[in-house]
Structure formats: structure tokens, C-alpha cells
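assembly run, all chains below
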Amino acid sequence: MSRKKTVSVENFRARVEELSGENVFACYQCGMCAAGCPLTEEMDRLPSQVIRDLQLNDITLLDSNAMWVCASCLACEVRCPKGVDLAKLMEALRQLHLRKELDHVSIDEMSQQEIAKLPQIALVASFRKKTG
Amino acid sequence: MNTIPYFPGCSLKDTATGFESSAQFVMETLGLRLQELERWNCCGTVTSLTTDDLMHHLASVRNLVRVQDLHESELVALCSMCYNTLARTAQRINADPVERDKINQFMDRESSYEGTVEVRHLLQVLRDRIGWETLAQATPITLEGLKVACYYGCTLLRPKEAAIDNTEKPTIMSEAMAAAGATSVPFPFAGECCGTYQVVDRRDLSIERSFRVIQSALRAGANVIATACPLCQHNLQEAQKELGHVQGLADIEIVYFTELLAAAMGMDPQRLPEGLNVLIQQTAEAQTGWGGS
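ok done. output:
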């Protein structure tokens, strides 16, 4: 028996809601999160579209880069008029990958010089967010 | 001298030593010594946001236990990422006896955490315990004429529960600067993200974000940016190096807010950033209308 839980269309939204503790249907698509997000230009789906795709249970959302670009700056979280914590949804999406041991960064690919130059908090934070 | 338990965190012992030494000087001058926890460990740097990830709050709780062991109920942090992570964990675990119990059962060598420690940022201690008037009286060297852009970034302001001031219109750092005689210039990117840990694998992205923060401060007329986070500081300085050819970008000083306060309190200039000393001297000369002595 595999110890890895698989994500399927049947349980995708439910798993994200369980991991995040958020109700995606609280969102009424006003777009405030996307308006204030500092990194939308880098995302292949807007923050508001991420929630819309969750509402629609669109599992292709797992292939989006939005969750990896999100830096948990929480600009969306403090401004959402419906109290939806999008940063928690992004974290849940990352965790669905990371818990299957699909890391998004690797320290092995970085040079000693690169590592030495960075403040520890950058490295620890990055590995906490992007490795399992 | 009165003391307050203090959590430094990793960066203050390595890339941000000037942040620590200036803060220590400021607090000693004000008569409230920062007492470093005898044993501390990494705070975790970022808060785990999933419901079932209690384990990742353990590192922060261990630090809170060490404050409790000192029979104290307050812990002060300087690094804004440490502040945020410790404060959010304290809020969550203090309010939830079931989660606290789970963590206590897991910990072995530590005493059980009773949920009584609160985490504060140094700016809050300066405002609420010291007071701006006392701070102003302790600054013999005026920073008059200095135009400071107070850069808060994310973790001092968000989420609301951990915010040290109004999330959209913070004034706490400008109040500290005003007490030291400097003018703080409002700029719209004061609470925008610098790109944070994305610098590790998406440096382009953090450079771009940090560039915009500096540009915003420059256009507001600032000649120095005050930060409270070693990662903001790093990212802004990287953008400055990378895009130094952009007009004015290389001229702005980026320092920790404590370094400005320490300068105003008369800390030995040799222990402060050279660029800051030059700027303070030039500003003072411009104020008197005389170049040189």
C-alpha cells in the first residue's frame, strides 16, 4: 500500500479546503486579491482565478505556477472583503505537491557562493515553502 | 538596569550584525537592556499555514518555553520575520489548549508551555514601554534634514493579528524617526513585498520587486530607507547593486531603523554604516548652510 495519498478530481477541492481550513465558496470574485498582489505578472493564473478554479474543482490548477510565485506576503489576506485567506489556499496547493516529495527547489543545484551570499532567513524560508 | 528577554535569530548573528549592535546600543541608552535568551533556536522563519502542520510551530514554542523558564511573559524580537513567526505561533498556541497540550506531550526536555508569553517587536517596546518623548530626550545628535522612507514590508503589518500598527497606514516607524529629529517621507510602497525568499530561486523576481520599492522611496524624495528585516535589507541592496545604473538608485542609503536611532544617540560612527555617517554629516552641513568646517 502506498503511503502517498493521491489527489484526484473527486477529492481535489475537498483536500485543499481541509488543508487550508478555508471555504472557497465564500469568495464572490471581486478581484481585490489580484488587484493588490505584487506578483501577478509572474503568474499564469491570477490569484482570483486560483480561487475560481478551486470553486470549479479544476485539478489542472496543480500545474499552475501561481502557488510557487506567491510569496505569502498576505496583501490579499488583509484586504479580502470576505475574509478568505488565499495565502492558506496557496500553501495547501504547494503542500499537495510537497507531500508527494516533489520539491520545487534543490540546494544541490546551488553553488557554494550563492548560498554564502544569502541571509539564512532566505534559505530557511525558501526550503520551508518549497520543499517537503 | 532593567532587562527584557530578547530573541536575536540567525541573521542578526551573521548578515545583520549591525542591526543587533545598534539595537543593543539604543536599548542600553534607554535603560532597558536586551537580554538574549541563553539558549534559542531557529524560529522557523515562516509560519506554516496548513491546518494540520502543528509540528512546524514547535521551534517557536521551544523559544517561548525559555522565556517562561525566566518567569517572564514578554519576548522582544528585532528581525521582523522572527517577530511574525514567533508572534503568530504564540497567538495560536496561547489561544488553543488542545494544540498546546499536543505540543507539550511531544516535547521532552522542555517544561510544558503554559501559553503565557507574548511576543513584541522592538518598535512596539519603544512606543509602548519607553515612549517617544523619552526616546527624543535620549537623542542629542539631531537627524534634522534627513529624509527617511520607513519601509515596513510584509511581516510587521500582516496578518492583522500580528500587525504592530495599522496594516495599510502604519506610522510607528515614522514616529520613532520623528523622535530622533528626522523627517519621514510617506511613500506608497512602504508595505509592499520586497520579493522575500523568492531571491533563492527567483532572484529576477525579488530584484524587480525591490527595485520598485526603492524607486517609490526615491520619488517621494527620500535619501535613506529604514528597514526592520535582514531579508528586506538584503533584497533592496541587491537591487541597488544590480540596477545601480538607474539614476539615483545607488545614492540612497538602506539601513536598519535602529542604526538611525543609534546615530542620533551618539553611537561610535565606526560601528555604523559608512554611507550613513557621510549622509548625516552632509545633511548637517546643508542645515547650517556651511560646507565643511
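Chain A touches chain B at residues 18-21, 38-39, 42, 69, 71-75, 77-78, 85, 87-88, 91-92, 95, 104-105, 110, 118-126, 128-130 (CB under 8 Å).

Chain A has two domains: 12-100, 104-132.

not gonna interpret more than that til we talk
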